[in-house]
Amino acid sequence: xKIRVGIVGYGNLGKGVENVISYNEDMELVGVFxxxxxxxxxxxxxxxxxxxEDAQNMKDDIDVMILCGGSAKDLPEQTPLFAKSFNVVDxxxxxxxxxxxxxxxxxxxxxxxxxxxxxxGWDPGLFSLQRLYGxxxxxxxxxxxxxxxxxxxxxxxxxxRVEGVKDARQYTxxxxxxxxxxxxxxxxxxxxxEKHLRECYVVVEDGADKKVIEETIKTMPNxxxxxxxxxxxxxxxxxxxxxxxxxxxxxxxxxxxxxxxNEHKQVIExxxxxxxxxxFTSSVLVAYARAAYRLANEKQFGCKSVFEVAPVYxxxxxxxxxxxxxx
Amino acid sequence: xKIRVGIVGYGNLGKGVENVISYNEDMELVGVFxxxxxxxxxxxxxxxxxxxEDAQNMKDDIDVMILCGGSAKDLPEQTPLFAKSFNVVDxxxxxxxxxxxxxxxxxxxxxxxxxxxxxxGWDPGLFSLQRLYGxxxxxxxxxxxxxxxxxxxxxxxxxxRVEGVKDARQYTxxxxxxxxxxxxxxxxxxxxxEKHLRECYVVVEDGADKKVIEETIKTMPNxxxxxxxxxxxxxxxxxxxxxxxxxxxxxxxxxxxxxxxNEHKQVIExxxxxxxxxxFTSSVLVAYARAAYRLANEKQFGCKSVFEVAPVYxxxxxxxxxxxxxx
Lengths: 327, 327
Description:
The structure is a homodimer.
Chain A (H helix, E strand, L loop, with lengths): L2 E6 L3 H9 L6 E8 L14 E3 L12 E4 L6 H10 L3 E4 L7 H15 L2 E3 L8 H12 L4 E6 L2 E2 L1 H8 L4 E10 L1 H8 L8 H4 E9 L5 H9 L9 E6 L2 H7 L5 E11 L5 E11 L2 H21 L4 E3 L14 H7 L2
Parallel strand pairs in A: 1-2, 1-4, 2-3, 4-5, 5-6, 6-14, 10-11
Antiparallel strand pairs in A: 7-12, 8-9, 9-10, 12-13
Helix pairs in contact in A: 1-10, 2-3
């Protein structure tokens, strides 16, 4: 019997789950649950669409719900709510609020005997795992995370809120020179400006003052003021033609010295180079949906992060097979 | 109370454990157990040395034994034996024999209520974990492992067995061109010759026939015949001066495409660059010794591989702390 999966929210991430579930032969998609009118949704693979409320009548038809909404407004409400009726997986990524979100999902899961796995994806997610493995193995060392080159939705949105801006795309780019320094074992603390630069492609309204817009972007606190920021003004056609993808990626670098005289440098590097950020994040969510299903079968109820899930739960093969083939 | 650790075998790996345990404030070293006469052992940090037999009288003094012997002769015998009296961790690395070794350690652990974690290190070990996470997340993809640049002890030993050879050091070197192909998403099956080359530094006896030795090395089945092999003849002084280190490393590359039209390339790359192979392997062993101790406290007896150990068991901090700081 296949693991039956539901998708809550049909944006980029939900469509990603719909795509990547097809690579997993032990899983099948039951439906998409949406806040919109389901009759207006045409799914890519003709999976039926339902309202969020419909889900309550489908508790016996779905083994795991993958929540594909946003971390700002959707997930804080939806993940604990759906955890009352389903095993759930989400990609909640507001780092500072993870402990609080975890607690709420944990309470809901324990009260209803379900498994929740939250903050799944690549950061938080796979990058977090690398930070943990690195620190556990080389506790005397130093870990640095670099992001990009990739599109930051949050920074693109921030530019769109500037008066006179019609549309925008912001790329976060790691600074190669600093990456190389860390790679070669330099354990200094680098500033935001030393680690990343921000490149912005901006479409403006007719007659807008580009000078003012550029200045407003570059001095925006939190988002841009602490970085070297490059602003390009382009046409709507150029934005449509050259900047529709959602690539991303990054590097987690852990460096340390060992040896009785600290004479040996040890470098662990984990790098993602992703043409599609949402499709990769979806791939991680789907693997952890398998884990949630299995943990629920073992009655290991409650909320977990990627830290608490043994790797073997993610892979479709048996542990004996994995020890034989992949160890 | 600190986790009390014993070391079985005082070679490169045992000395590595002695070194890296000092970076782990929650652990302490009780002693080194050796086949040699303990009175002839002078440990680097003045840890006492004992005979292997002494260990039987120290069951209550040691929480985890780290077995630092070789995979050919020591570990198949020692790990199951010590598992009768202790929680054990080893770096058994003969891939083909792992299932059998696992079974023997598992039987010993279950009969005596201990935890064993076998085949811990970087390959098998951290590289295995990356292969598992990669395949679980992108099952439609392709994984390739490259080793080096680094010293292969097995290949160095094979050269030393050639008549007329006094000493030798063999470096395994990944072929950059193939690495770049895989990184760019080329999922072909590459041959041994396409993936690695073997560079040998050889010291010969006076009057030995270098031509015959070179030919013997290059045509040696399994070890060299399937590779491009470069042989350098050097003096004993040069070998002592330039080739005493034990660097190693490598790359696990997982590539896959996603998207309804397979239009998006996704690349996961995990890379190790190690000045000291034994000290890094020891670092991994020590982190898994912590895990073995904790699993034993939870009465999760039996043998495990890195696949079955949730990441959280490796790190000294509490899971709440880790979720807050590293997620």
